[in-house]
Amino acid sequence: MDFLKDMWLFLKERKKYWLAPVIMVLLILGVLIVFGGSSAIAPFIYTLF
Questions:
Q1: How far apart are CA 20 and CA 14, in angstroms?
Q2: pTM score of the predicted model
Q3: What is the spatial distance between Cα 24 and Cα 21, in angstroms, rounded to a whole number?
Q4: HSE of 48 in the Cβ direction (CA atoms, 13 Å)?
Q5: What are phi and psi of 35, to 5 degrees?
Q6: By C-alpha distance, which of 47, 43, 6, 7 is closest to 26?
Q7: Distance between CA atoms of 32 and 12, rounded to whole angstroms?
Q8: Whole-number Cα distances in Å, 5 to 2, 17, 20, 33
Q9: Is the distance from CB of 32 to CB of 49 less than 8 angstroms?
Q10: Contact at 8 Å (CB) between 36 and 46?
Q11: Tens digit of each residue's pLDDT (9 = 90 or more) over 1-49
């Protein structure tokens, strides 16, 4: 959680709010890849890509 807190403080201090959606999309894709490789829902995730 410290990483997310530090990232938010960086975005807030430097006024780089436009990076927030980019980071969120990358995090979501990362979670999909992790869960897609080792779960029963993998075939459904692979159809998205």
A1: 12
A2: 0.57
A3: 5
A4: 8
A5: -75, -30
A6: 7
A7: 27
A8: 5, 14, 13, 24
A9: no
A10: yes
A11: 788 888 888 888 888 888 888 888 988 888 877 777 766 766 776 676 6
Among the listed residues 12, 11, 45, 20, the one whose alpha carbon sits nearest the alpha carbon of residue 31 = 45
pLDDT at 49: 66
Q: Give the type of residue at 29.
A: L
Q: What is the pLDDT of residue 44?
A: 72
DSSP 1-49: -HHHHHHHHHHHHHT-TTHHHHHHHHHHHHHHHHHHHSSTTHHHHHTT-
At 6, the amino acid letter reads: D
